[in-house]
Design goal:
- By secondary structure, the chain is mainly beta.
- It has no helices and eleven strands.
- Strands 2, 4, 5, 6, 9, 10 and 11 form a seven-stranded mixed beta sheet that branches. It has a four-stranded antiparallel beta sheet with strand order 1-3-8-7, with no helix packed on it.
């Protein structure tokens, strides 16, 4: 059974940075696409960033986070991280990671971690 666990969320001030980590068990994460999504209160879940599966890695970012967020793999830890810089209040949301055979087909999801950006 595949299990994804997010960590690293918290409450920070505008302009700060956070690093979220998605750690997997029951699956070798480097062989699968991994995506980060977020859902703010009262809004639909939205795509944040993704990295493609085995072979050459392709990285994709939502326009709202391009240049501020970086997704990366840590194969030794069977994990994928999301480095978030220059955080703004509009980045406040529950962030979840997902894994699947490709970036259009995620079959496993984590429970999410809260990120709050507030002064």
């Amino acid at each position: 059974q595949v299990r994804l666990v997010e960590s690293g969320g918290g409450e920070v001030q505008p302009g700060s940075s956070l690093k979220l980590t998605c750690t997997a068990s029951g699956r070798t994460l480097k062989l699968y696409a991994v995506g980060w999504f977020r859902q703010a209160p009262g809004k639909e879940r939205e795509f944040v960033a993704s990295v493609s599966g085995s072979g050459v890695s392709y990285f994709y970012y939502a326009d709202a986070v391009k240049g501020r967020f970086t997704i990366s793999r840590d194969d030794a830890k069977n994990a994928v991280s999301l480095r978030m810089n220059s955080l703004q209040p509009e980045d406040t949301a529950v962030y979840s990671c997902a894994s699947g055979p490709n970036s259009l087909d995620y079959d496993s999801w984590g429970q999410g971690t809260q990120v709050t950006v507030s002064s």
